Each structure stands twice: as structure tokens, then as C-alpha cells.
Amino acid sequence: ARHLITAAAQMGPISRSETRADTVRRLVEMMREAKARGCGLVVFTELALTTFFPRWMIGDEAELDSFYEAEMPSAATQPLFDEAKRLGIGFNLGYAELVVEAGVKRRFNTTILVDATGRIIGKYRKVHLPGHDAPQAGRAFQHLEKRYFEPGDLGFPVFRGFGGVMGMAICNDRRWPETYRVMGLQGVDMVMLGYNTPFDHTGDEAVNSLTLFHNHLSMQAGAYQNATWVVGTAKCGTEEGSKMGGQSVIVAPSGEIVAQAVTVEDEVITAKCDLDMGRIYKETIFNFARHRRPEHYRLIVER
Ligand code: ING
């Protein structure tokens, strides 16, 4: 069996004033703990280098740019790559990406997959952007991802590494079945993702009270229906006054939760993931080739 001992490195709050160096030190500390537990891969969270800045209307472009990475790695993030290489462990890192193409600034909510030699072997840009592109009245905190990021332009690719087929998603992507299915159709063995999930997203108290239930429901369904592992890593706790859910998990292709965080702080959870566990599902219940009828699914891509 292809075993991959995997860590989800949940993060507690990152304050607005925290420096990249401070945050990288926290990530390095959790990477060391993951390695000490025998992990070959550690999954960090969405926007793991800064506070969740889309909660604010930021009018000043220079201030907005300060939350993005213009290069990866940079001097501030190089220590994370160096430590990964020294320890011989791969990692997945979410960050705000700023690129200039043909003189135009483009902004993405991005995540990368780095192998145990410190080489970037995969990149994904968040497709499903929740929230708004302009401030909404009456909200204690905004959710301006549609203002600060473009929808991802890389699709849902998969990458060979760590002995299997690896896929990435980011936060709101985990709520959409298409995310997992496009990767499932490419034979993905493990989908890794980070999330920043405020409890006050909808303003509807009944829905907000189900935030953590919907978090696990989304990832367990995605895992089971595509016979893949799902690693979901939270940024959580009360960050600059905004309360965000934790309960990071590692979900098996059966849909079972095999590891779960119990704090709302920096916490490493781990599991020995058998990448062959999905095979029985892919050969029976979810044998896509034998059972799917795409001729009846057109509405999904036509609407
Ligand atoms: N955050 C949230 C997420 O999809 C949200 C937005 C919160 C949607 C609660 C629905 C309910 O988990 C990000 N960053 O996508």
C-alpha cells in the first residue's frame, strides 16, 4: 500500500500587525512537529501568511498590496522552503498572489504544492470566490474576496507527487461538488485545502449556527463521492475580532473523519493515509466509467 503520513497544520489567528517572519516561524514550528511525527507532507491553510484581510474595505492600493506575495519564495518565505528541504518534508501553502502580466496587476487567492526537495510542483488559484466585490452595509465584517481576487484561471489540475495523484482546492471551493469531481475524473488520491470560515458569513443565525456542520459535510461528501482523501486545514479563532471556525480534519475516501483538531489555535493533526484506500470505491460504487452517464449531465456546464 502507498502510505503517506500527512499533517494538517491548523493556524490560530494571525493579527494584522504580525510580520511575515513571525508567521513563517509559526509555520516552521508546525512543520518540525509534523516531521517529528513521521509526516511526508504538511498541509497549511488558506492565506497562511497574513490575517484574513478580505474582512476589511482597504482603499489604499499600497496597503492592499502589502498582504500579497509578489514572489514565491521571497526572502521572508525562503526559510520555510529551506526547512522543508532540510527536514525532507513536502508542504502545501496558501497565500495571496500578486502578478504583473503585460503591465497589468493580477491578484489571486493561490496555493502551491512543494515537494521534499523544496521544488514547487503544483499551483492552484481559487475558482469559487465567496462574498462581494463592494462593501455591504450592516456587516460587522466584510467579505471582499470578489474585490481582491480574480477567479482562478488554472482550472482544477492534479499533480503527481508523494506517491500518488495530488489535488488542491481553497476554502469555498470545498462546498462545490464540481471541485472534487473534476479532480476525481483525473484520478485524484488526495485533495488538500485550507479555509478561513467566519461564523457570521450569511447574517442568518440558523445558517451561521451550522457553519461547522456544513464544513465537515462538504469535505466528507467530496471525499466519499470521489473516493479521495481530503485534508482540510483551518485558520481559526478570533482574528481581529472576527470569529472563525476550526475543526480541521483529515477525511478518508470512505468519508470518515480520521483526525480532527480540538483547539482554535496552532495545532498539528496527523493521519497515516493509505492512498490505495479509494481503490475499492473506484472499482465498485464509484467506478466512473461503468456508472456515470455524462449525456444527462449537460446542464452542469451549460448553465
Ligand atoms: N470563506 C468561507 C467559506 O467558504 C463562507 C465563506 C463562510 C461561506 C461560511 C459559507 C459559510 O468557508 C472563504 N474564504 O471562502
From TrEMBL:
This is N-carbamoyl-D-amino-acid hydrolase. InterPro entries: Aliph_Amidase/BUP, C-N_Hydrolase, C-N_Hydrolase_sf. One of its GO terms (molecular function) is hydrolase activity, acting on carbon-nitrogen (but not peptide) bonds, in linear amides. Keywords: Hydrolase. The keyword Hydrolase applies. Residues 4-275 form the CN hydrolase domain. PANTHER family: NITRILASE C965.09-RELATED. SUPFAM superfamilies: Carbon-nitrogen hydrolase. Transmembrane segments: none annotated.
